[in-house]
C-alpha cells in the first residue's frame, strides 16, 4: 500500500496560548464542556498543538531508516569504560519545556462522554471488569511488578531476551547515568507533569470503588495498591509509563515497536488490577506522549536527550560485545514488530464504537512531529507531520476531538509512525511504502 499527502507549510506558529500554561484550568467545567460540544477550538486547539519557541524543523542527522551509527550525534564521545553523568548544573538548569501545561483541554473529550454517552461509560466499566476477572496469573504478576517498580527498568524486557538483560544490568551498575537521569521514575529530569490536576477536574471514581464487590483484587501480599482514593481519569501510572516508554523508544528507535507495545502493556495492567478503566489508560497515553513531545521540541532540552541516546547506544553496543544491530538481529525478540504494531493499535481504542463522525481529516498536533526526530531524522517537520497523519487511526472514537476541529492526540499511532518506511517525492510529499 502506498499513501501520500501534500506537504504542509513549514511556518512556525507562536507558542500555544494561555491554556497551555498551568495556573488554573481557565474556563470552568461547564464552560469547557460547552466549548467542546459546540466545536469551539479556542480553548483546546493550542494545548500542545504548536511547538515551543525553540523547536526546529529539521532533525539530527541524515538518511531514512533506524539505527545507522552515523545518524547518532555524539556516539564517538561516549566513554563506554566509564560513562559520565550530566554535570549537576545541566540537570538543575531551567528549560523552556519545564513550563507546566494544563492538560485538561487535551483530555476534555471525556466531558462529552459524561454528558451524552452514558452507554460508553457503562461499557468502560464492563470492559474493565471483564479484563480484570479474566486476567491470567502471568498478567497479574506482571501488573504487580509495574505497579511498584520503575517502569523504565521493568519494560526493559521489550529490548529482547539478551539485550533486555544487558540494559537492566547496565542501569543497575550505573553504566547509563545520563539515560537514567532523564528517564528514572523518581526525579527523572524528562518526566511528565502530574495527572492530579486533571484527576481533580474530571473527578471520576476508580472502578474498584464504583464496583467494590465485582472486581478481583490483584495485589502483592501486604501491598497498598487499593489505598488510592484519587480520581480515575486519566491514569497516572499510564501517563508515567508513556512518558518513560516513549522516551526509551525515541532513544532506541531500532526497537520502537517492541518498546511501545510493552508500554501499552503497562497501561493495560492498570485495567488488569481494576485500578483504572480503558478510557483512563487512553487518556494517560495521550498525556504522556504529549509531555514527551514537549521535551523533544525544546531545542535546549533536546541536547540532553541526544546525549542520552548516544550513551544508551554506545554502552549497549559495548556490553553486548559486537555491532548492536547485528546483535539485535540474533537476539530473541520480546515480540515481533508486526505483533507489536497490532497490539499497540488495538489499545488505541480498546474496541470502543465510534461516538463521532468517521473520516474527518487528521489534524496532527504540531509538536508531535518532534517524536519522530530519531526514527525519521532526514524528514522535515512538515514531512514528519505527514507520517503521523498517514499512520493515524480514523476519527470518531471516544476522547477524539477531531469533530470539534481540534488537534487529536487520541488518534496518533506512534508505533506505526516510528516504524513506517517512507519515501518522498520531488514535491516533498511523503509516501508510506510499508513498515521497517
Automatic annotation (TrEMBL):
Its EC number is 3.1.3.2. It is found in: Periplasm. Residues 195-291 form the Phosphatidic acid phosphatase type 2/haloperoxidase domain. InterPro entries: Acid_Pase_classA_bac (IPR001011), Acid_Pase_classA_bac_CS (IPR018296), PAP2/HPO (IPR000326), PAP2/HPO_sf (IPR036938), TAT_signal (IPR006311). This is acid phosphatase. It catalyses: a phosphate monoester + H2O = an alcohol + phosphate. It holds the Pfam family PAP2. The lineage of its organism: Bacteria, Bacillati, Actinomycetota, Actinomycetes, Micrococcales. Residues 1-31, 53-83 are annotated as: Disordered.
